[in-house]
Amino acid sequence: MQKGLTIPKKGSVLRRKFWIGIIVSAVFLYLAFRRVDLHELGFALRSANYLYVIPAILLTFLSFWTRAFRWRFLLGPVKQVKTSHLFSAIMIGFMANNLLPARLGEFVRAYVIGKKEQISSSSSFATIVIERIFDGVTLLLFLIPVFFLPSSPRWVTKSGYIAAAIYLGILAFLAALMIRTEQTQNLVDRFLRPFSVRWRQKVRGLLVSFTSGLAVLGSLGHLLIIFLLSLLLWFLVVGAIHLVFVSCGLKLPVYAGFLLLAIIALGVMLPSSPGFVGTIQFLSVAGLALFAVPKSQALGFSIVFHASQFIPVTAIGLVYLWYEQLSLRKLGVKKYLDNPSRLV
């Protein structure tokens, strides 16, 4: 019987990530609200035209459907899956990210679609890794203009360079695993020699199963389609951001939404509490400071935008969780985080 997603025992990986995320979010929340006039913040929230939030939410769900359609292409070499089934798994996964610690949502997505479609969890998780790489590369393209802004803070440019190095490094490893599978696995074995034979065998089994999910890398046509879908996906999210700009009375240039999205998306790579509370507020304030937006208005925007993302996504995710006859306890994905080799 699978164990539920309860707060784990002392010393576990999940518990450490949970408390680190809580601390980071608390610090960011403090920085976001520091020296903010609460009366001005209240006025900004009262003055917002929330009718614009409705189409922003619709664009958000359209971006999730685009994500599901893209995932269908990524999973194609493994198994043909209906877009509606993938959309269900995605909504459950993002709901899990909002409610559960340590970003369990990605594991939840792999678990849900693997269980529903009888796909190896490691194969489906491999496609999620590729998906995230495409997301990262696309967002880095959006971030490039900020390097040329005179007011661009050093932490933004440094974060961009670090993220680029991480994404390119992962991409190089995945390409090597796909093109030179045996050699790459042997190289990993050498690095794992200090560990037990049993553990090395599990990791090797994980890599073998993981490789099947990388088959899409061998198709240039699929790669082009996936890249174009990635652009469409994030353009839809930028559209949602601009609608919230209008809702909050912010008159900003078109590229402001692209830069803010890139800053937020790359910034949430840091540990955070469930739902990225505090992190999104701080990053929104920091990003909008590049355009001289007063802190109270920027914080008001962050609250409206975060609510437009958090509440509908969590609600729909819970509906799909019920529809799939699952529960947070039944998901039982904690074991994958504490021991990734169980994905095999």
According to DSSP, the number of beta strands is: 0
In terms of per-residue confidence, which ranges show pLDDT below 50 for 5 or more consecutive residues?
1-11, 336-344
DSSP helix fraction: over 70%
Shape: globular
- Report the portion of residues in β strands: under 5%
Radius of gyration: 21 Å
Main β-sheet: number of strands, strand sense, barrel status? none
Mean pLDDT: 82
Q: What is the subunit organization of this protein?
A: single chain
Explained architecture:
By secondary structure, this protein is mostly helical. It has one domain (13-343). The protein is 73% helix and 0% strand. It is built from 15 helices and no strands. It has helices spanning 13-33, 38-47, 53-75, 83-99, 105-117, 121-143, 154-179, 181-191, 197-212, 220-247, 254-267, 279-289, 295-323, 328-331, 334-338. The longest helix is centred in the last third of the chain and has 29 residues, at 295-323. It is globular and about 60 Å long. The two termini are 17 Å apart. The relative contact order is 0.19. The model is unreliable at 1-11 and 336-344 (pLDDT under 50).
